[in-house]
Amino acid sequence: MSLVTSLYVGASGLDASTNELSVVGDNIANSSTVGFKSARTVFSDEMAQQLVGESGQMGLGVSTMTIQKLFSQGGFTTTGLSTDVAIQGNGMLVVKGNQGGVDGTFYTRNGQLTIDKDGYLTNLNGLRVQGLQADAAGTVTSGLLGDLEVGNASAPAKATDSITIRGNLDQTAPPTDGTFSAADAKDTSNFNTTMTVYDSLGNAIQLNIYFCKKDPATNTNATDSGEWTYHVLTDGGNLSVDGAGNTTTAGTAAEVATGELDFDSSGRLVTNNTTLNNFNPKNAAAPQKLTFNFGTGTDPASGGGSGLDGLTQYAATSAVSFVTQEGSSSGSLSSISIGQDGTITGGFTNGQTRTLGQFILANFKAPDQLQRIGSTLYTETPQSGSPTLGTPSTADRGSINAGTLEQSNVDISAEFIRMIAAQRNFEANSKTLTTADQLLAELMQIKR
User: Fold this and answer.
1) CA 260 – CA 213 distance, rounded (Å)
2) Highest-confidence range of 5-9, 217-221, 413-417, by mean pLDDT?
3) Which of 184, 225, 326, 418 measures 20 to 30 Å from 151, CA to CA?
């Protein structure tokens, strides 16, 4: 090998060391970049030269074979933002849009997401996140893959169809005279409670429920320890007609429903002889059927239950401990939450919740062969293969951690060790150059 060849061997070492320092510097510079994946330099030796007249080969230096991307898991940081997501395991988020003047599909581990002005879930570059869109009923189907639109969701009004009441009716209360008057409801009843229901338009309608204890002497069933009637009233202005089909007047109480409650000597509800009337709210869908659930009676005809899961009759003050109904007014989106399977659930101002969509993740056979284009985005290449798409937590895809971000997988201490090694390697190769130069200078002196 000539001395000139030695110069080129040393120069190749300098180039390789420079490349290593560049890769290490890039890793360190992006150590705080969310979703960044580090890289390492892979070197190979150059083709060896056969020595003339000798049985051996002489190496001609080193070259950079490739810069390999390392897709190991990064650490997690909790942010508390509902739109921040991190992937635990394999897979990449899929985003679409214009990046650097080019429209296309891109892949990223950076889960810093937001909802744009048009209601779409995007990354901070404005690229739209891809997923499975849910329909108006909250059902996710595989045929609705596309931009995830979540910010424009709303919850329609839901008409009340069931009312549940739990509490106690005082067994020691004096019986009424048996004549209930809607016009004088408070004085002709023992106890009353108020609740709100909704019609098909989401209008809130107040109902007043009055309970009247019957005289034990008039009990229809000798085994009953107590019989009560209940009457459901509302302002006539809320209705087109009352439960009996009569025209109502605003400012006048109108009866919606009535029924009878029977209790045994242990205070348990025996029968719930509920009379269901048609509820006819004004200007809304009518008739609207209301079911009043006061509990499961012990009588088989009333469900054969314990008789203690609704209203009871004990020697204690009459009171209602629980009232619920299933209707609501219309509502706008107030919050979103994301599950580990990537399901996006919207919470609405009317208390309803509904599935809005679901993330998809892309897996590659050779993710280290993806092309890095900046902004923590990657594109597929022939070497990486085409992605396989699916929902999180399926096959070998990872799960979604909401409210967290995946940090870079750069190990600062390891990078500094690599930097020191590259620096020393650079110094050693520069020494090769200076030594070869000194020897060439000696040859020049011999000629003189």
Assistant:
1) 10
2) 413-417
3) 326
If DSSP codes are grouped into helix, strand and coil, which group holds residue 84? strand
Q: Is the CB of residue 98 less than 8 Å from the CB of residue 411?
A: no
- Which stretches of 124-268 are assigned E, i.e. beta strand? 128-134, 140-147, 154-155, 162-168, 191-198, 204-213, 226-235, 253-263
Model-level pTM? Answer: 0.79
Check residue 340 and report its DSSP letter. Answer: T
Question: pLDDT per residue over 365-387, tens digit each?
Answer: 999 999 999 999 999 999 999 99
Cβ atoms 409, 74 nearer than 8 A = yes
Question: pLDDT grade, residue 258 (50/70/90)?
Answer: confident
382, two tokens: 């022939």
Q: By C-alpha distance, which of 354, 352, 300 is closest to 330? A: 352
Angle subtended by helix axes 3-29 and 412-447, to nearest 10: 160
DSSP 100-149: TTEEEEEEES--BEEE-TTSBEEETTSPEEEEEEE-TTS-EEEEEEEE-B
| Residue that the structure tokens 């509800």 belong to | 269
In contact, 184 and 168? CB cutoff 8 Å: no
Read off the tokens for 353: 């919740």
- Contact predicate 158/152, CB 8 Å: no
Structure tokens at 141: 């189907």
Helices (H), 278-321: none
Through-space distance between the first and last CA atoms of the chain, rounded to whole angstroms:
24
Nearest to 86 by CA among 97, 99, 73: 73
In this structure, what are the phi and psi dihedrals at residue 375, rounded to the nearest 5 degrees? Answer: 60, 35
Residues contacting residue 225 through CB under 8 Å, at least 6 positions apart: 171, 263, 264, 265, 266, 267, 313
CA distance 29 to 42: 20
Alpha-helical segments (H) within 147-244: none
Q: ω into residue 300 within 30 of 0, thus cis?
A: no
Q: How many CB atoms lie within 10 A of CB 123?
A: 23
Give the separation between CA 58 and CA 269, rounded to whole angstroms: 100
Tokens standing for residue 218: 């008039």
CA distances, 241 to each of 230, 237, 375, 394 (Å): 20, 9, 65, 55
Which among 396, 397, 367 is positioned nearest to 384, based on CA atoms? 367
CA–CA separation, 54 vs 60, rounded Å? 16
